[in-house]
């Protein structure tokens, strides 16, 4: 199991001693998803927290008319349904936009980790707070940024987004139509 990227990412929050690393690694599973495989379906209980080793996933909501893309998650980042932490049914779908390899942990094992050592607990709390801040930044962008600014930010974070997902998903993320996405991209060049 290749865990270098995970350990490097976790060490950004706080240093992890070798015994703490071994405890964390002993709780993880490894999974591989093909393009268009679901990591999470809406209306099902969220069972796992994922760390993306390679690949790319999209989080979206179903509305009566269309899918509404909320977030893209790439290599070196964590992803789960927001319902994972209270163990309720998910409102969102998480789908692999490319072949995606992950390390994952189920909820009972995450709770065991939270109580295993103070240092591991601090690291996990740090990453929960990062996830919360990321969600708040996303919400704030939707409320305050112009569509042009949302497109600029999307391409700054994911320069190759149109190679990884359909243009309509990128447009949905920005809250605009596919035509407006292309028009805005032309303006930004």
From TrEMBL:
InterPro entries (alphabetical): cNMP-bd_dom (IPR000595), cNMP-bd_dom_sf (IPR018490), RmlC-like_jellyroll (IPR014710)
Domain Cyclic nucleotide-binding: 24-122
One Pfam family in the UniProt entry: cNMP_binding
Protein name per its UniProtKB record: Crp/Fnr family transcriptional regulator
């Amino acid at each position: 199991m290749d865990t270098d990227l995970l350990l490097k990412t976790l060490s950004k929050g706080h240093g992890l001693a070798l015994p703490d690393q071994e405890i964390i690694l002993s709780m993880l599973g490894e999974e591989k998803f093909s393009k268009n495989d679901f990591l999470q379906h809406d209306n099902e209980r969220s069972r796992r927290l994922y760390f993306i080793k390679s690949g790319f996933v999209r989080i979206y909501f179903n509305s009566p008319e269309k899918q509404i893309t909320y977030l893209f998650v790439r290599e070196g980042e964590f992803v789960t349904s927001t319902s994972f932490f209270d163990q309720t049914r998910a409102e969102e779908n998480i789908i692999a936009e490319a072949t995606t390899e992950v390390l994952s942990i189920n909820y009972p094992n995450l709770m065991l980790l939270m109580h295993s050592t103070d240092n591991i607990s601090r690291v996990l709390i740090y990453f929960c707070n990062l996830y919360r801040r990321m969600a708040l930044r996303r919400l704030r962008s939707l409320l305050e940024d112009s569509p042009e600014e949302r497109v600029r930010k999307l391409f700054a974070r994911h320069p190759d987004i149109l190679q990884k997902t359909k243009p309509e998903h990128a447009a949905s993320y920005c809250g605009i139509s596919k035509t407006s996405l292309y028009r805005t991209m032309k303006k930004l060049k």
